[in-house]
Amino acid sequence: MITQEKYRTRVKELLASNSVKMVIGYKQGSTADRRRPLFVRSFEEADELVLDSNCIGNLAGYLVTEGLLSDEKRVGIFLRPEGIRSINILAAESQLNPEQIIIFGFDTSGREVKALQGEQAEDFSGLIDSLKEKPPEKSSDALLYRIDQMNTEERFAFWKDEFSRCIKCYACRQACPMCYCRRCIVDSNQPQWINTSSHTLGNFEWNIVRAFHLAGRCVGCGNCDRACPVNIPLRFINARMAQEVFESFDHYAGTSQTQEPVLASFNKDDSETFIL
Ligand code: SF4
Ligand code: SF4
Q: Suppose 136 and one of 43, 117, 191, 242 were both cysteines; which one would form an S-S bond, judging by CB atoms 3.0 to 4.6 Å apart?
């Protein structure tokens, strides 16, 4: 068990010594159990920091999409294990310099918050390795189990029904730390690769293309399905892709800052069942 006072003190020390220009953490949200991002630049803001089991959002994406590292100054950030994996992937994809990041690691089990030791992503390699021992969630959720038991037709009907509610708001993309492209394929209209209408074909195209872009990169943080205003269980698509990638290529996303992207590299021992 940790006290958030300890973290607040550490944040103030880093700000006072000019070791970081900012720390990204959590503060009280609009309801008792909601937390929202907090960008701490002063002692007063540090006093607003909250750290408890409701701090579930993965904050890693702000480092890239908000350009917070562009001046080469250091930034602190509160991260759960999946957030640390995000940092590793973003570093491996040359989207950030991990040396600019100071990590306040934490984990939650039940209502307890546990401090993770280390302040650099590489300090957590042992933790990430241990996560790999229990790979992408397999039927641990009742709905995921139900989807797994469906035959192809039932599964297609299930997702067709779910996608029929998609309104193409792209909140899932905005909330995902791995969706950092400045211009997304869906925003391009010359040529227009993806149908932008919210009908069956357009919704399938969007969600399937996004799933493939996330294959071998999703860390299972759940930002996407928490952001979806119509509650499509998006995380299960990516969890399933992660499981396939793990079983086919022994690839668990975010284990290191030098990990090769699974769909942009190959091994001569890789399965070639799609060719045979
Ligand atoms: S696809 Fe969803 S669960 Fe996966 S990294 Fe992006 S936001 Fe997190
Ligand atoms: S957040 Fe939900 S409704 Fe919005 S584009 Fe994504 S899947 Fe569709």
A: 242
